[in-house]
Amino acid sequence: MLKGKTALITGSTSGIGLGIAKALAAQGANIVLNGFGDVEGPKAEVAGLGVQVSYHGADMSKPAEIENMIHHATKTFGALDILVNNAGIQHVARVENFPVERWDAIMAINLSSAFHATRLALPGMLARNWGRIINVASIHGLVASAEKSAYVAAKHGVVGLTKVTALENATTGVTCNAICPGWVLTPLVQKQVDAKATALKISNDDATKLLLGEKEPSLQFTTPEELGALAVFFCSPAGNNVRGVAWNMDGGWTAQ
Ligand code: NAD
């Protein structure tokens, strides 16, 4: 379905981003990966799906590097058709104890990077009158949890940016939507499970059950594969008139 298209997924060396990259590759899209850590492993996984893969190591807190990455995608594959703004970090602390440097980093990586990548990718998409911008927000773009002030503020911002981008382009072939996952067992969440296990002196298994039980009625993690399938839907012809939604995949978290 996506043969001949190019998708850039930020923060795709791990977790949800890699899951979405693989789902889009399975539909034939050429892929630009981004993120830190091991690059060769994710590159090989995506290439194994029979598409072309490139990598750009832009630090998503740096607008000049984001600009460079968008140019790299266009230069490598001729166009950028699908942009998935996914890179994100977390820090947990009460507002009065929240390190200022962590606040600034979360705002830059989780929110401003989506603005920069979007503003730079849009002109090419509009020129071809086809584009998909998918913002990986979070359930924390819709509701809050204590001790996540920067993350919740940034993710609410991402949902707002999604709506504005969708409205400004509503009469064109460019759509913009957000995905709002509940808990997904990635390195980002494993750190929170480990912190809970240490703080409460309980096993990793019990900490996992506690984490899910507090918020997620299904008591199940959403998987990167399920989120990838939702991204594919947004890119499909059936998604042509889906504009500005913030779509939960949260095991009932926000139905409560
Ligand atoms: P993860 O830690 O597995 O992956 C994060 C990715 O972002 C990695 O590839 C990492 O290298 C990259 N990254 C981090 N800082 C970066 C930077 N400055 N520049 C470029 N890349 C950078 O985390 P994940 O759980 O897969 O999270 C992906 C997105 O999903 C995030 O935006 C997160 O907020 C969101 N999310 C996660 C969950 C969850 O439960 N895991 C739930 C809702 C939303």
Written overview of the protein:
There is one protein chain. This protein is α/β, with parallel strands linked by helices and 256 residues long. It is built from 8 helices and 7 strands. Strands 3-2-1-4-5-6-7 form a 7-stranded parallel sheet, sandwiched between helices. Strand 2 (30-33), helix 2 (40-47) and strand 3 (53-55) form a beta-alpha-beta unit. Helix 1 (15-26) packs parallel to helix 2, helix 3 packs parallel to helix 4 and helix 6 packs across helix 7. The longest helix has 29 residues, at 100-128. Bound molecules: nicotinamide-adenine-dinucleotide (NAD). Nicotinamide-adenine-dinucleotide (NAD) is lined by residues 11-17, 34-37, 59-61, 86-89, 109-110, 136, 138, 181, 183-184, 186-189.
Low-confidence segments, given as residue ranges, are none
**Total beta-strand segments:** 7
Q: How many H/I helices?
A: 8
Overall mean pLDDT: 97
Give me the Rg, rounded: 18 Å
Amino-to-carboxy terminus distance: 36 Å
How much strand content do the residues show?
Answer: 5-15%
Instruction: Give the class from helix and strand content and strand pairing.
Output: alpha/beta
Bound molecules: nicotinamide-adenine-dinucleotide
Strand-helix topology:
Layout: E1 6-9, H1 15-26, E2 30-33, H2 40-47, E3 53-55, H3 63-77, E4 82-85, H4 100-128, E5 131-136, H5 149-168, E6 174-181, H6 187-200, H7 204-215, H8 224-235, E7 246-249
Parallel strand pairs: 1-2, 1-4, 2-3, 4-5, 5-6, 6-7
The structure holds nicotinamide-adenine-dinucleotide.
